[in-house]
Amino acid sequence: MSQKFELLAEDRPDQGKGASRRLRRTGKVPAILYGGHRDPRVIALDHDKLVHSLENEAFFSSILTLTVGNKSQPCIIKDVQRHPYRNVVLHVDLQRIIEDEEIRVSVPFHFLGEDVAPGAKAGGVISRIMTELDISCLPKHLPEYIEVDVSTLELDGIVPLSEVKLPEGVAFVGGDEMLEQPVVMISRPRREVEPEEEGEAGGQESIDTEPKED
């Protein structure tokens, strides 16, 4: 079950770039709430509290409770715009949800058994090809994450998307061609050139280039 997160917001009457800059100087983040067959609503969130919530991975794949005034609304995060190099959130998009309508969300993969996988114990390198998956489900079925078990994966082994067990009521977004896409694999480490081989090659080169005596 997803964790519970609450967001407190206030309406913002002014819009535009200038108004957004003024709002950020007061420690607020401009945001918009849309969907649910209702008109979009422009709101403002507390910046520091939002940044703290964003540090939790589950925040992005959970049903949030947004409260404006004395009314609350369930919603999900759809987009977060950040400053290119500062830890500053510039804008947030939130989507209202309706209990009996499916939503599309990107949820992370959690990889289990990497430390005991036979391929890893044999010196293989674990590569996480996919770290998240776009899914579609009703709000009540939204998972916090999707588990991928690699505890039995051998060297050169691959777990394709078709072998990942999705939770009840959850489907991935995309065509059947995605089923064979690798999610995680264990590959053999690259063979390093032996020092002896390097020495032999260097010695041969010195012999070839050495001037001949008369």
Please summarize what this structure is.
This protein is an alpha+beta fold.
Q: What does this entry look like structurally?
A:
With 214 residues, the protein is an alpha+beta fold. The protein has two domains: 5-97, Ribosomal Protein L25, Chain P (Beta Barrel); 104-187, Ribosomal protein L25, C-terminal domain (RNA Polymerase Alpha Subunit, Chain A, domain 2, Beta Complex). 17% of the residues lie in helices and 39% in strands. The chain has four helices and 13 strands. It has helices at residues 17-25, 47-54, 118-121, 195-209; strands spanning 5-11, 28-35, 38-46, 64-68, 71-82, 89-96, 103-112, 125-128, 132-137, 146-149, 158-160, 171-172, 182-187. Strands 1-3-2-6-5-4 form a six-stranded mixed beta barrel. The longest helix is centred in the C-terminal third of the chain and has 15 residues, at 195-209. The N and C termini lie far apart (86 Å). Residues 203-212 have low confidence and may be disordered.
From the N-terminal CA to the C-terminal CA, the straight-line distance is 86 Å
The low-confidence runs, each spanning 5 or more residues with pLDDT under 50, are 203-212
Q: Class by helix and strand content?
A: alpha+beta
The count of β-strands is 13
Order of helices and strands: EHEEHEEEEHEEEEEEH
What is the C-level CATH assignment of the largest domain? Mainly Beta
Characteristic terms for this protein:
single chain, disordered C terminus, 214 residues, 4 helices, RNA Polymerase Alpha Subunit, Chain A, domain 2, 2 domains, 6-stranded mixed barrel, 39% strand, alpha+beta, Ribosomal Protein L25, Chain P, elongated, 4-stranded mixed sheet
